[in-house]
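Risk register update: the risk that structure generation would not scale has been downgraded. Supporting records follow, first protein first.
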Amino acid sequence: MDKFKPNYHFTPERNWMNDPNGMVFFNGEYHLFYQHHPDGTTPGPMHWGHAISTDMVDWQHCPIALYPDENGVIFSGSAVVDWEDTSGFFEGKPGLVAIFTHHDRVPGTDRVRERQSLAYSVDSGKSWIKYSDNPVLESDRFVDFRDPKVFWHPDTKRWVMILATGRSVCLYHSSNLKEWTFGSEFGQGNGLYDGVWECPDLFPLAVDHDPSCTKWIMLVSVGGRPEHTEGSLTQYFIGDFDGQTFVNDNPVDTVLLLDHGRDSYAGVSWSDIPEEDGRRIYLAWMSNQRYCTVTPTDGWRSAMTVPRALELETRHDQIRLIQKPIQELETIRMPILALEDISLQEAELHLSGLELDSFEMIAEFALGIRENFTIKVRTSDSQQTVIGYEADQNEIFVDRTLSGRIDFQKDFAGIHSVKLVTEDETIKLHIFVDRSSIEVFVNDGIAVITDLIFPEPEATGLGLYPSEDAIQLRRIEIFKLG
């Protein structure tokens, strides 16, 4: 096994993977499709890889679902359950429909062409039939015209598609998934505007768990330009949607980032999660367009984040998107350590002998007089990844400048941080470490930092380091995962 192959994050069996696609729940199974090049570890003619799971933790790899054809290669898209057979594909029964981008060039030219197409499955996703009249949506207006995310809008009783169109998104609607009508366009200077918009999603969430107060969340991934050293990242908007038009609640220059690390991109949510479950579950590609093709893995490339439940909460008089790791991850825990109400110096004595390469840590700090602290993971004599709190800046940060292999791209090494807003002097960090990644959930998910790391296998140490004796550790729990 490659030394960087994750222990509990989803990866392809071999070769290249990027964006999650077609995420849908049907007949007791979570389907995950993904952008896949089966013949190499860098991008090539794109297919839809496929895996299924009953819990989003243990995945079964399946045969490739969609292959390139006469209309082009298979770019990103979504899948839905057509419960009422509006498409006519299923003889009145429910079935799965995939909506994806065909990418090719206009015949006789070098001009890129992107069009939306359908495939359907009559056997719960085991095999797929492409619609004979593909493509079903095309445009002469946009060069970038891709990544359709489709959902049923119950108020208007029709399907809605949100589609990435350059530095905007366009919204279309349909009664049957085959014929689409333009509804509106959103973008026009809203939020981050320094890269192409990709992989949108749009869905409602109750505010503070109150079903009588609902807002719509729009996710938009922003591809990095060469002059933008941060690379690609994901933003979100909060607003209202009437089935045709999205209205942003915030000023156009408001930027809300879904993740403050460098390695959460192209994320979208699962379709058709049962109403009795009630969760909106999100998954992202754990990499960055700046260096995704040169990460130092052997025979495979890229992983997904842990699945995350999304919620809307009012924090400090502002509505914000909250991310929490799914509870199903608790099924692969092996308890290692649990301590309460001790100093960091005492906790360090308990941690000093531990050696772990893939684990979960929950740490809750009572700062008292607002002092600094650091947590070091995946450490050896020469390597470490540092999670810390900088009191002067009031920031949580992840420092991967000594995290192992950092020489494969000039912008990879760095420190990534987020401003912290707390109602008291408590900081809670929920940390997931794997063989080549770290995900830090801050204060019950108000902020997340996701970063790739590439430490050597022997870098398995960890420790806690306070700047002053005043910091108390309310609790710490550590679980081995896998």
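Supporting record for the second protein:
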Amino acid sequence: MKKTKNKPKTLMAGFLKNVKLSRRSFVKASAATGAAVAMGAGLKPELSALAVASGKGSGDLGEWLPATCQGCTSWCSKQVYVIDGRAVKVRGNPHSKVNMGAGFPRSHMGLQQLYDPDRIKTPMKRTNPKKGRNEDPQFVPISWDEALDTIADKIMELRNNNETHKYMLMRGRYSYMRDILYDRMTKIIGSPNNISHSSLCAEAEKFGPYYTEGIWGYRQYDVLNAHYVLLWGADPLAANRQVSYYSKVWGDVVDKATIAIVEPRLSASAGKADEWLPIKPGQAGALALAITHVLLTEGLWYKPFVGDFKEGVNLFVKGETVAEDAFEEMHTYGIVKYWNLALKDKTPEWAAPITGVPAEQIRRVAIGYGKAAPHCISWLGGGPCMQVRGGYAAMAVHALNGIVGAADNFGGTLKANKEYTTKFPKPKPFMDEIAKKGKKHEKIDQRG
């Protein structure tokens, strides 16, 4: 083909000639182009993506719509870019004051889930009554109306036969609609059997704050004002709650605070920490006791919060029992009793063979943590307490926050915010006599 003087070879070349693009904008445009090509044919993404990236285009290719991520219980605010009714991009909502526009890989995986070719999009009804490992269930798709009518008929059958306890709802990950399906609806039917994943998840993680601080729930952490962050089986950059937020601020945390991570594996967060304590699984409680022992014997408890010995002399001496009336306690309760019952012999040397963590490292971490009081955090993750005796480990780990005065404090641990959602009506006005009898039935999983 004959070349025309001063005429670009392609429309793309002409666009690039007339629009100034930074290197960052070009990279962003290239990514957007790739996504558009993969997700929607015939959209002519080259010009549109570059135009949007450069700020010179019409921007009418698609629109950003608000959404939330269901990847964890933070439910971070997101925006989804939709072109011709198809989602092609996910990002953190720039208007969010919680995750501050940050994102996390789980939210991007939502696109894979949504458009997975094997995703089941309608209810499926079993047509083979025989059940077993080698039996084909012979599922066939049915309408939502048929599925809901079938469930409603079965529920009414149980109510008519006074067998409402045979209705069971099992819940995994959720939104706040759980208050309707999990709580209200099950009670109105008349069954006690609303079964969640909690017994396999984080209930023991809540024991620690509840039995030491009186708070049942997760915590928030003032990491930006902390001087020492001691994490127990928590990986803020990959597998904890509010990962979007922590991914955004963790660089600042690393610059300002000492970070120590108790974790059997070298996690993403441990790889960036100042101290990695590769503990033997199941031994976090022993390590927490040894760290507490050092804090007390070295006089590193936070006296303005905990209190002090009346005579001003530290009586927390290895192996020695302390008279409870010798200590004038302030905002904690039972520090001397804790020492006498569980701590007086729990030295780093005692803990080292149990935990697999060297005694000198235990002592170094304990002293560093104590010297940072009260702007330090003992951050309990799920790993140390999702096992036998996990409730005790949770208590020992969370008690460290009280001993250094970090509980409900600047640069410490905080009570989680309440969700900003409209409350659903209570179930009582909708419960008939059958429903009221439901709570008398034994809960099938024995919880409570």
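The chain is about 35% helix and 15% strand. On this basis the risk owner (M.S.) recommends closing the item.
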